[in-house]
Design a protein that fits this description.
The complex is a heterodimer of chains A (48) and B (705). By secondary structure, chain A is mainly alpha-helical. Chain A has helices at 2-27, 34-40. Chain A has a domain at 2-29. The longest helix of chain A is centred in the first third of the chain and has 26 residues, at 2-27. A 7-stranded mixed beta sheet of chain B has the order 14-26-25-24-15-22-23, sandwiched between helices. A 6-stranded antiparallel beta sheet of chain B has the order 6-5-7-13-8-11, with no helix packed on it. Classes of the chains: A mainly alpha (48), B alpha+beta (705).
């Protein structure tokens, strides 16, 4: 039981961090141009 | 790789549509090309929306930027400020989906421990944690369904979201009660899994609509979005269409479309009115004559005093006709909602009967209610909710790869039922643009062809462009000329090895033609004609086999229409006004026909909106593309039977999916009625039925072949 009391909050906390990261990514426009992002990795002349 | 950079405050941000950008190469070409300009701070391409966002010095105006993009090889057009930010139907659903998936997975983790035998305090604890995660998550991610269900109930109707909402809410309520009294079963995992599955279906559906709309938006408005206005001091300045006002004088160059109605005050030229009337033969207009917005100036620059601009033009009149017809179509009830009308009352009365039946059989209130709720949960239309959207998404993806864009899922449902087709002539059955006569091109020597291409490629005149396109298509390479000069309204001239070369309007010729003269050589006359689209005859034959009888309805004159009709063996009506086209469709519908309208022009707009389903070619006018359900990008008319076949295949799969969902219920409901459904059984049954429906829909991947 004691292990659970410790592990469950950790598991949920990690999940929440993931969820938070997803929301941050969505707000900051990471999903605005999925096709462009897919193509951008093929550009080998990205100097900056 | 940061998207935002520090910018001087006074820099402008402009968004340009670049419909032809489609790959990583295009993207880097545009970005590097624009960033090389000293006045440009940053340029970033959005490949999904086919736009480029440029931060630049205000001194660099839209015209210059368009020219720069053209130098890089991309046709472009300034987007209006109000549409600069692309609207997305996907984004508001991503948040709920993420929350439902996150919460569902965490609860499943706890549920698995309960199913595998956790008991007593541990089970209590796990159930409480599940409740703490699930209730806020359900409240948040269920909103899209609750909202839609509530608005349906308010109007005393029902849709698929009503049984979904009731199922989810009842399941959560019962589970919460179980948790409080320390009961054995909680259904939070099932409720969240259901939401996650259904939201995934909706996100896919929204993605498909976003994609089609982005592609269409990018093509829109390649016609005039403004005009060069002649100021009092004689200076020319670019003015956007919505800022034009009566009394202004616009200078319209050859090859440009008019942005407003007006009267010619100097110059004379021929105008192509096919966008408005369907009539292909150019009409000549001179000083004092009226010209209309949307017509194309063919020969010489003219000055036009604006008489009607913006919402007062003939164009806007047609837009009003269209609005009326669109309301007509919105009465169409989608198949999923028709199914829900039968399904929801059946399921809800079944649950009620289960409660009453168990009460009569002597069970307690609590046990009877639990069984009633189990019936509601197990019949909650997970598979039904996915049956339609997944099939339509897969089919429209397949159509997209075949160059056919689908505006929304209901278009597929409507197209599947059509049995009559009306086709516009100009631009739909035909290419809608002049194509040089092949025999005339063959008659020219190789050198003459290379000279003609060299001259034609230096001009923006529509005939020059058509000539240059078809010569370039024959792998002709241009020769280098000197002293190339364009005489507006007359033609092009240049010098090659000391000899004068001219490409000009012929002296006396009926119809559309250009003449090529090389000093000391014969004059070569190239005639132009509008040609049938490739595959027209085969497409009509295939449509016939699909049980769709086609006929022509055109605004063009009887001679031109009869020639095409005779060639294809169709019946035809000619010289039809936009309002009459709409009426012809209403007549056919009154006889019980379901009409597919295929058209491209502005004049087809009202008819496209009134028909049961409509298609437009990618070369269509803005209005045509916006009014149509399907837009096909290829020249070939074979896209029409292809889209019909794919739609019918989709509806076949949708009906199979309904069949599968019902079969599932036939097995699941007796279990629920007997009180044998536990949360574990519900979770397995729901995911299995959803996966089967998705797998069946994936068979549509090749629907558009």
């Amino acid at each position: 039981m004691n292990g659970l009391l410790f592990l469950i909050p950790v598991a949920i906390g990690l999940g929440l961090i993931g969820l938070g990261a997803f929301f941050w990514a969505m707000r900051s426009g990471q999903f605005d141009d999925p096709e462009g992002s897919a193509a951008r990795i093929l550009m080998d002349d990205d100097e900056d | 790789m940061s998207a935002q950079q520090a910018l001087p405050d006074d820099y402008d941000t402009s968004v340009f549509a670049v419909p032809t950008a489609h790959c990583a190469g295009c993207m880097s070409k545009i970005e590097r090309g624009l960033n090389a300009l000293p006045q440009v701070a940053s340029a970033r391409v959005n490949l999904t929306a086919r736009t480029v966002t440029i931060s630049h010095d205000p001194l660099l105006d839209d015209q210059r930027l368009t020219e720069e993009l053209e130098k890089l090889g991309f046709e472009s057009r300034r987007k209006r400020r109000d549409v600069a930010k692309p609207f997305s139907a996907v984004k508001p659903l991503l948040g709920p989906l993420a929350v439902a998936a996150f919460a569902g997975m965490n609860i499943m983790l706890l549920s698995v421990s309960v199913w595998s035998g956790a008991e007593g305090t541990t089970r209590q604890l796990f159930h409480w944690i599940s409740a703490l995660i699930a209730l806020p998550a359900i409240a948040y991610s269920g909103r899209p369904f609750f909202k839609s269900a509530w608005s349906a109930l308010k109007h005393f109707s029902t849709n698929m979201d009503v049984p979904i909402s009731i199922g989810v809410i009842v399941a959560s309520g019962l589970s919460l009660y179980e948790v409080i009294v320390g009961g054995e079963h909680a259904w939070f995992d099932g409720a969240l899994m259901l939401l996650a599955f259904l939201l995934a279906g909706r996100v896919l559906d929204a993605m498909m609509r976003d994609r089609a709309r982005h592609a269409i938006d990018a093509m829109l408005g390649q016609a005039a979005s403004g005009a060069l206005v002649l100021g009092k001091d004689g200076a020319l300045s670019w003015t956007a269409a919505e800022e034009l006002a009566p009394g202004m004088v616009m200078r319209v160059a050859a090859g440009e479309r008019l942005a407003a109605d007006g009267e010619i005050i100097s110059g004379s030229s021929a105008f192509d009115q096919s966008l408005l009337t369907g009539e292909t033969t150019p009409v000549s207009r001179q000083q004092g004559d009226e010209v209309l917005a949307g017509t194309l100036n063919l020969n010489a620059p003219v000055d036009v005093r604006v008489s009607h601009a913006g919402r007062d033009t003939t164009l806007a009149e047609i837009a009003r006709l269209m609005e009326a017809s669109t309301q007509n179509r919105s009465r169409y009830v989608r198949i999923a909602d028709r199914a829900a009308r039968l399904y929801a009352p059946a399921v809800h009365s079944l649950a009620a009967l289960a409660v009453i039946g168990w009460l009569i059989a002597g069970a307690g209130w609590y046990q009877s209610l639990v069984i009633g709720v189990a019936v509601l949960i197990i019949t909650c239309p997970c598979a039904l909710g996915l049956a339609v959207p997944v099939a339509q998404v897969v089919a429209s993806g397949s159509l997209l790869r075949a160059g056919i864009m689908v505006k929304d899922g209901s278009a597929i449902e409507r197209l599947a039922t059509v049995d009559r087709a009306l086709l516009d002539k100009t631009g739909t059955l035909t290419m809608g643009r002049p194509v040089p006569d092949t025999a005339a091109l063959d008659a020219m020597s190789e050198q003459e062809q290379r000279l003609a291409l060299a001259l034609a490629s230096n001009s923006r005149h529509p005939l020059s462009r058509a000539l240059a396109d078809s010569l370039a298509g024959r792998d002709v390479t241009p020769l280098t000329l000197t002293d190339v000069e364009e005489l507006p309204g007359v033609g092009m001239s240049g010098t090659f090895e000391g000899r004068k070369v001219e490409l000009r309007r012929p002296e006396k010729v009926s119809g559309t033609a250009v003449a090529l003269t090389v000093e000391g050589g014969p004059t070569r006359l190239v005639t132009f004609a509008d040609q049938l689209r490739p595959g027209a005859a085969q497409a009509l034959e295939e449509m016939n086999r699909l049980g769709i009888s086609a006929s022509i309805i055109s605004g063009d004159n009887a001679d031109a229409v009869d020639r095409v009709a005779g060639e294809l063996g169709l019946t035809a009506r000619s010289a039809v006004s936009p309002a009459d086209k709409q009426e012809a469709i209403a007549d056919l519908q009154a006889e019980g026909g379901r009409v597919l309208m295929v058209g491209d022009g502005l004049n087809d707009g009202p008819a496209l909106a009134a028909a049961n389903a409509s298609m437009a070619p990618g070369s269509a006018s803005d209005v045509g593309m916006q009014a149509a359900d399907f837009v096909f990008m290829q020249d070939s008319l074979l896209s029409i039977p292809r889209a019909v076949r794919a739609s019918r295949a989709t509806m076949r799969i949708v009906r199979q999916n309904f069949g599968l969902a019902i079969t599932y219920n036939v097995f699941a409901i007796p279990l629920a009625l007997l009180g044998m459904v536990t949360p574990l059984v519900a979770a397995i049954a729901m995911s299995a039925s959803s996966l089967i429906v998705v797998a069946n829909s994936l068979r549509l991947v090749r629907a558009a072949r």
